Amino acid sequence: MVSNLYYHPTNPGWIDEHLQKMRSVGKEQASLFADPMFENPSVGDFGFQAGSPAIELGIEALDVSKMGLQDKL
User: Fold this and answer.
1) pTM for this structure?
2) Mean predicted lDDT score pLDDT of the chain
3) How far is 11 from 33, CA to CA, in rounded Å?
4) How far apart are CA 52 and CA 35, in angstroms?
5) Which of 30, 62, 68, 70 could staple 46 via S-S, CB 3.0–4.6 A?
6) What is the CA radius of gyration of the chain?
7) Where on the phi/psi map is residue 11: left (φ > 0), alpha (ψ -120 to 50), or beta?
8) Are the CB atoms for 39 and 47 separated by under 8 Å?
9) What is the per-residue pLDDT across 17-50, written as a single tens digit (0 to 9) for each?
């Protein structure tokens, strides 16, 4: 089962309609709206703090140092 974690820091209700619609057709059953509790996103640390709902959903932290364009070998 696929689980997503949705979050918006100033509008917690923005996802309600989507989740209601998707759940009515059997999707997004385990998805949540919650603060992912990143370690320190302002410096690019997108690891999760202990107790993050992302960890409970099985979401892996992003290593942003490996993202974006890379030089060709």
Assistant:
1) 0.75
2) 89
3) 11
4) 8
5) 62
6) 15
7) beta
8) yes
9) 999 999 999 999 999 999 999 999 898 888 999 9
